[in-house]
Amino acid sequence: MMDLTRRTLSIATLSATALALAKISKAQAETATELSEQSYTAMKTLFADVPNTRNIALKAKGILVFPRIVKAGIAIGGMSGDGTLFVGMHTHAHYNISGGSIGLQLGAQTYSYALFFMNETSLSYLENSSGWSIGSGPSVVAMDKSAATAWTAAGAQSGDVYAIPFSASGLMASLSLEGTKITRIFPG
To answer: How many domains in the chain?
Structure first.
């Protein structure tokens, strides 16, 4: 009886995870133009919701905006989304962010993410690497809405890249170790 219960639970967990990961694959845009437009709209939303992010943008050498990242999991999870790198407020390139996780987690959510590259070295690292694994390379300072609102150029934390999540919906409870990688893509 114990084996049947474990097997049923394992099958249910794998099935739910497969469904969640299938939703993740739909986070990608159809064309480069569509992706650029979605990313630009998301950036305008961030500027409206957290006005001080305009000041961060003025200091940044480039801004990588992911308009829609889908994250889901039940024990095993994943996340993915496509975004646009803006340099001088013009589309420069497109990237995918993806990652997997294993651990205590349950749920699904969508959110947007902006990465502000504050110097040429960090921007060059992104552009010249064959894929940037967060945690290696440039230092990343994660900021929530209140930290971004309080940001000042004079009192700025040291960091090559400022990361700001925004526009979250859904519910994801997790306690997990995650690996996230950003890779250049060439949408149609």
So the answer is: 1
